[in-house]
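Dig into what follows:
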Amino acid sequence: MTAPSPPPLMVLGTSSGVGKSLITAGLCRLLRRRGEQPVPFKGQNMSLNAYVDEDGGEMAYAQAMQAWAAGLTPGAAMNPVLLKPCGQGSSEVIHLGRSVGISRAEHYYRDWFRPGWLAIRQGLDICRQRQGRLLLEGAGSPVEVNLQARDLTNLRLAQFLRARCVLVADIERGGVFAQIVGTLQLLRPVERSLMAGLLINRFRGQRSLFDEGRLWLERRTGLPVLGVLPWLGERFPAEDSLDLLERQARKPEAELRLAVLRLPSISNFSDMDPLAAEATVQLDWLLPTDTVDRYDAVLLPGSKQTMADLKVMQTTRMDERLQRYVAAGGVVLAICGGLQMLGQRLHDPHGLEAETPGDMEGLGLLPLVTAFKPGKVQRQWTTTTTWPEPGQSCTGFELHHGQTTPLARAAQPLYAQPGLGWVSPCGRVVGTYLHGCLEAGPWRRHWLNWLRSRRGLPPLPTAVSHHATQRDRLLDRLADAVDENVNLEPLLR
C-alpha cells in the first residue's frame, strides 16, 4: 500500500517580486537534502521566460529551475497555465504545455477561468504521481480583492489542497509591517486558517536590529516569523524583464564587454545567464536608444513580438546603428526572434505578429527570409557544430512560430550549421534558434576565445562544465541560506 504524500506547502507573497520563485527553489533543494521528494507547482504564471520540456511542452523557466532544485526533470504539468503577454492588452494562453488561444485581458476570466482550472486540476493529477510533497508557488498578491472570486493560483489552490502557507514580504521595498498585516487583514477566516508562518526577505544589515519588529509581528498576527533571509548577492534567472534592471553588476576585472538589446517584448533572457556568470565578461543590458559602438559583441535575444520589436529598432534607429556597427567590424549573436530580425525580410501572411497580415524588411545582416505560420516548433535539440570550433556539442530547445530559410540567390555565401543556425562568411554575424546554446561550456568558451583573439587577449580554458553545474551550485547556496535563516519546523510538523 502506497504511503500518503505529506501535506502540501505553499509560498505566497505580499506582492509580485518579493522573491517567491527563488525561495520556492531554495525550499525544493533543502527538502530534497532532508530526504523528501518536493514537487514544484505553480498553477498559473505570466512570463516571457520559457522552457521546453522533454515532451515539447512549454512552461515557465522559473518552474523548470525549481524542478532542477528538486532533482526532477521539468514537466509542463508543473506550470499548467502559462500566459505570455503579446502586447495591446492580450496574452497567449498555454495549457499543459500547448498553446490554446489568445485572450484579451478584459475577457480572460470570462473565457478562460473554467478551462484554466481544469488544466490546473489535470496538472495536479500528473504531479501527484511523483509521490512527493507538493511545493506550491503563488502569483502576485493573494488578496487582490477585485480578482479573488476568480483566483486560479493562490488561495483557491491553497484551499483545494489544504496547503500550509508561508507569507513572504520584501523588507527592501519598505513598509514590511503594512505589507504583512494588510495582507492578513484581507483574508477570509477560511483562508487565514491556512497561514502557518511569515518570512522576511532581502534584509540588509545587522539582523538583531529587526528583533523588536519580529516580536511585534508575532504578537500582532499570531503567526511565527519563520526567518529573516539576508540580501543574497548571487544572481539567478529572472522571472520577468523588470528584474533585468538588477543585472547591472560591474566587473572591474572584465576583459570583454558584451551588450544585450533589451527590446520591449524580450523573451527567454535567461539564455544570457551563462555569459553573465563569466568572470571576464561585462554584460550590459541596453535600451534601443543606446549606442553599441564600444562593445566586443552585441546579442539579440528572443522576442515574443519579433516584428513589433523590429519596428522599435527602426523607430529609434537602432537598426542603422547596428548595421554601421557590423560594417565597421562588429560582432552580432542572435537567438530565435533575434535571428529572425537579422534577415532580409519577414512575412506574416496570417497576422500572427500583428493585427493585420503583412511583410517587413529585416536588418539585412544575413541573407535569410522568415515566414510566420500557425503552430509552434517546440522541441529539445542536440547538435554538433563546426563553428567556431569543429566537434562542439550544443544542447537546448527551440520555441518559435517563424520558419527561416536562406535566400535562393544570396550575394554572399552563408554557412549553415545544422541544428544551430547560420553564420556569415566572416563569422561575425551568427543566428540560431537554439535557446540554451550558451550553456554548453566548451562552445561558449570557444566563441569567447574567438572574440578575445580579436582583442589580442590570451584564450580561456575550454574544458569547462555545462552551465547547469554552476546553476546547481547556486541552488545549493540558496538552500544553504534558507537552511541557516529559516526554521521550517512549524511548516513541516
Observations:
- The mean pLDDT is 92.
- The first helix runs from residue 20 to 33.
- Residues 441 and 465 are 5 Å apart (CA to CA).
- The radius of gyration is 23 Å.
